[in-house]
Amino acid sequence: MSQRYMNIPREEIPWYPTVDAELCTSCGNCLGFCANGVFAQGEQAVEVVSPYNCVVGCDACAKDCPSGAISFPSKEELVQKLRELRLKYAEKQER
Amino acid sequence: MKKAVLICTCSFACPSMKDISFGELTERIRLELPQDYVVLHPRICEANGENLMEDLLKPGVKYITLACKEEKQRKLLRDGFQRAGVPMDENWHPISISFKTTEQVLAELTKALEEEK
User: Which of B2, B34, B54, B70 has an alpha carbon 20 to 30 Å from A41's alpha carbon atom?
Assistant: First the structure.
């Protein structure tokens, strides 16, 4: 799925969940919680299969994970990265 | 009871809401549907949205929320209602807008507003 966020290609924004396989109990909570198919059940634990379907800035699945297995980059890192990418794409448009 | 429509756009970035024109949706709700006011927010479930809820929500108003799946909204909006001191059971009517078009959302909201008469 090709998407843009603030005119930035979604694939350039490193915002998506990471699942700690040791903490994941495969309860499936996140599979039902995320509407966008970011997760799938793997052999040992839930896996992130469509990272760029994750809504930029959304970490609600982590809050809802009963075992604390899901984590995200910090919001500060996201804001900084978006600043850089906005500049990059603004420069491209000016050319 | 007054009726307010709160729309969560999920940062205008949720793939499940790609078929909704939030600009058209908001304006048509304002112009065409029988509500007291409509509010658009990029993410009601996060701290900024909870601040809004704390300031905005009060008893005597039915809040119809257009956002993600209903069961997900119940989890995500619970803290905002709690902070506002407004009971969800009495004052809340969720509608999921995931995987719907603008027209489908308008049809569901029209039905909900009729039910809340």
Answer: B70
Residues A35 and B117: their CA atoms lie apart, in Å, by 31
Query: Would an 8 Å CB–CB cutoff place A5 in contact with chain B?
Result: yes
What pTM, to 2 d.p., does this model score?
Answer: 0.91
CB contact under 8 A, B10 and A53: no
Residue B27 contacts by C-beta under 8 Å, 6 or more apart in sequence? none
The 10s digit of each residue's pLDDT in B21-75 is 999 999 999 999 999 999 999 999 999 999 999 999 999 999 999 999 999 999 9
Say what the pLDDT of residue A95 is. Answer: 66
Q: Which two tokens stand for residue B82?
A: 């709690």
- Cβ within 8 Å, pair A35-B76: no
* pLDDT tens for each residue of A31-90: 999 999 999 999 999 999 999 999 999 999 999 999 999 999 999 999 999 999 999 998
- Contact state of A36 with B16 under an 8 Å Cβ cutoff: yes
Q: Which residues contact B38 (CB under 8 A, 6 or more apart)?
A: B4, B5, B6, B7, B26, B29, B30
| Nearest chain A Cα distance for residue B84, angstroms | 21
Does the beta-carbon distance from B11 to A56 stay under 8 Å? yes
Q: Can you read off the two tokens belonging to residue B94?
A: 């969720």
